[in-house]
Amino acid sequence: MPIDCSAVGVKNTAPAPTRCREGVSPAHTESVPSIFTLELALAALPPAFALIYIGCLMPSTGERFERAVAIMERLRAPGGCPWDREQTFDSIKPYTLEETYEVLEAIDNRDWPELAGELGDLLLQVLFYAEMANEQASFSIDDVLDRLSTKLINRHPHVFGDAKAETSADVKRNWEAIKVEERKLEEEKKRQSAAGKGNSAPAINEKSEAEKRSILAGVSSAMPSLLEAYKLSSRAAQSGFDWPNIEGLFDKLTEETNELREQLQQFPAPGPRPQGRGIAGSGRTPVPENLQARLEDEVGDLFFVLVNIARYLSLDPESALRKTNRKFKRRFQWMESRLHESGRTPDQAPMEELESLWQQAKAQERERAEKSA
Q: Where are the domains of the chain?
């Protein structure tokens, strides 16, 4: 039979959370599993928010989403969580980045149960931003969902319209053309809005206009540098600005390596050396500021060529480097374990022994890979 709110001490005298939709009632569920102690859950919060907890048995995806939104609203409301209420858009940004990388790690590890939890944590970031925006009357979660649905439909005219796209390359070309038109429409809306408010349109210099027309417009400089390089080079390649074959990229890699070597000829004697053991920065040769800037420039060029090689091979450079980081960490920790057996740490072992252990670690990984193949 339906849940009787009065039977569990829930009084519905206060209004339900503002995000709850009509038709979502605490009495919609036919039965409650004995494993769930409803009375304890309801006693934890004011009766006005009983729906949040009874809602854990909601059957539909939409109702589950409404419940998550209502919980976020409750946390930020007066009498909610002090920590959640103190947060701002800027204070939450680091958590958003952290949760994103935890999602990537779960995917790399093929840990699907963990991925479900990490995706929930990432979704929490969306709900958090949307709730804060709603509080300052900027936008709401409804606006977020509406814009997402509209974008998905508009950018897939080959599915929801009459456009043709037989291959993924066709889809990408359509996307780029659509995004250019979207940017034009957005600029026109801004102009009309400014005119409607009686404000004269701000002066726009030639450079900013060129930037807005650019195929590279929309590639955020706030994203990780490897990803930004990948997107910039991909956009440029779509316009035909690309190497005709991968050998051209290797030639470019050689060219950039030689340019770095030329700059290193000006490096103060005795030249670049490893940093001293144990103390970060010890043993480092002071380098003139202008030379440091040129070296940074040349190393950046090398990275950019390597990103293009990854793009040419349809590889994600961020993922490739992340896997190499894990491989290095795994091998180095194996070396540490072997040295620990003799009561030593890496800084207490000669380089020759470290190199030997490193090769052993690599050999063991190859053996394991061959056995599992």
A: 1-85, 225-267+288-315, 320-372
**Interaxial angle between packed helices 112-135 and 61-76, expressed in degrees from 0 to 180 and rounded to the nearest 10:** 60
Q: Are 10 and 49 in contact (CB under 8 A)?
A: no
225-267+288-315: CATH architecture: Orthogonal Bundle (1.10)
Per the listing, tokens 């977020």 go with 144
**CA-based nearest residue to 69, from 119, 134, 116:** 134
Check residue 191 and give its pLDDT: 78
295 close to 256: Cβ distance less than 8 angstroms: no
* The dihedral sign for the CA sequence 273, 274, 278, 282: positive
What is the spatial distance between Cα 230 and Cα 310, in angstroms, rounded to a whole number? 8
- The predicted structure's pLDDT at residue 205: 45
Q: Alpha helices, DSSP H only, in the chain?
A: 38-43, 50-54, 61-76, 82-86, 89-108, 112-135, 141-154, 157-160, 168-196, 206-213, 225-238, 246-264, 289-312, 317-340, 351-372
CA angle 179, 181, 185 (to 5 degrees): 115
pTM assigned to the model: 0.59
Contact indicator for 9, 42 with CB cutoff of 8 Å? yes
Whole-angstrom distance, CA of residue 76 vs CA of residue 72 = 6
How far is Cα 16 from Cα 74, in angstroms, rounded to an integer?
11
Q: Is residue 40 a contact partner of residue 51, using CB atoms and an 8 Å limit?
A: no
Q: Is the pLDDT of residue 136 over 70?
A: yes
pLDDT tens track for 255-306: 999 999 999 999 988 888 876 655 444 556 788 999 999 999 999 999 999 9
Q: How far apart are CA 193 and CA 171, in angstroms?
A: 32
